[in-house]
Specification:
Layout: E1 2-10, E2 20-24, E3 27-29, E4 32-39, E5 47-55, H1 60-79, H2 88-109, E6 117-118, E7 120-126, E8 129-135, E9 139-144, E10 147-150, H3 157-161, E11 184-187, E12 197-201, H4 203-206, H5 211-220, H6 224-233, E13 240-247
Antiparallel strand pairs: 1-4, 1-13, 2-3, 2-5, 5-6, 5-7, 7-8, 8-11, 9-10, 9-12, 12-13
C-alpha cells in the first residue's frame, strides 16, 4: 500500500495554546506540518494516522491529547508482537479504557488537569485492511472525485439523541471526561478505493467550514494548509488540525 500524507496542526486565531496533537506513523505533530510517503506492506506492519483534540483544565487539554496520542502509538507498536488472530476491536477498546482511566487518575491528582479529556479519531492500516477508531467528535471523511463523505459518527448530544436542535459542540463521550468511555471501531476497507483520500480533522475545521467548502478547497489543491487558512480567514476560534492521506 502506498500512502501520501500531508498534515497541519495550527493554534488558530484566538487560543493561547494548541491542544490538538497529530500522529503520522511514529511522528507527533503540534504547531507544525508534515509531509510523508509510506510504501509498506500493511499485512505485516501496522500504521496509524490520528487526531486528538484536548480539553479542560489550565494545562489539561494539551496534556490529555499528548497522552492519548502517545499511548495509542505505543499500542500500535505493541500490535506488531501480537498474534495474527488478535481481536483488533477488543484490543483497541481496551486501549481506550486504559487511556481513559489514566487521564481520570492524573486529573484527580493534579488540580491544573482536573476535568481534562480528549477526543480521538484514527485510521489504522493493518492486515491489508483499513480500520476506523473514533472517540468524540473529531472526524474522519472520505474524499472521492471531489465529493466528501463523513465516515465517523459524532459522539455529540445532537447526534446521539437525534435532536437536531441540540448544540453540536456538546460531546457526550471522550477520553478522560466523564465516568465511562466507549469507542467506535469499524473495518472501512470496503468503503475506500484506490485513488480515494482520507481526511481526519478536529472540530476546529468542520465547525467552521461546511463540507461543500472543504470539497471546493481540496478539489483545487490537495493541501490541508489551504483549509486551515480558510478557517483563519473566517476568524475561527479554535485550534485547527487536518490530516490528508491519499491511498495509492
Amino acid at each position: 500500500m502506498k500512502l501520501t500524507i500531508k498534515a497541519v496542526s495550527d493554534i488558530g486565531n484566538i487560543r493561547e495554546k494548541n491542544e490538538d496533537m497529530l500522529l503520522i506513523g511514529n511522528e507527533f505533530v503540534r504547531d507544525g506540518s508534515s509531509e510523508r510517503e509510506f510504501d509498506f506492506d500493511s499485512a505485516e506492519h501496522p500504521l496509524m494516522i490520528a487526531v486528538a483534540d484536548g480539553m479542560g483544565g489550565y494545562q489539561g487539554g494539551e496534556y490529555a491529547s499528548e497522552i492519548t496520542i502517545t499511548e495509542m502509538n505505543a499500542a500500535v507498536h505493541d500490535l506488531k508482537n501480537e498474534a495474527a488472530n488478535t481481536d483488533l476491536k477488543k484490543y483497541f477498546s481496551g486501549c481506550v479504557q486504559n487511556i481513559h482511566q489514566k487521564l481520570l487518575e492524573e486529573g484527580a491528582q493534579d488540580e491544573t488537569k482536573k476535568g481534562m479529556g480528549s477526543t480521538f479519531v484514527g485510521i489504522l492500516f493493518f492486515r491489508n485492511s483499513i480500520y476506523l477508531i473514533n472517540v468524540g467528535d473529531s472526524r474522519a471523511y472520505r474524499l472521492r472525485n471531489g465529493l466528501l463523505v463523513q465516515l465517523s459518527r459524532d459522539h455529540s448530544l445532537r447526534e446521539m439523541t437525534g435532536n437536531a436542535d441540540a448544540p453540536s459542540n456538546i460531546i457526550v463521550n471522550s477520553l478522560g471526561a466523564g465516568e465511562k468511555v466507549f469507542c467506535d471501531f469499524e473495518d472501512i476497507s470496503q468503503r475506500v478505493l484506490s485513488g480515494d483520500s482520507l481526511l481526519l480533522c478536529s472540530d476546529g475545521l468542520w465547525d467552521e467550514l461546511d463540507d461543500e467548502d472543504i470539497e471546493t478547497i481540496l478539489d483545487d489543491s490537495f493541501n490541508p494548509l489551504h483549509t486551515v487558512n480558510a478557517v483563519k480567514s473566517k476568524e475561527g476560534k479554535d485550534n485547527i488540525s487536518v490530516i490528508l492521506a491519499h491511498c495509492g
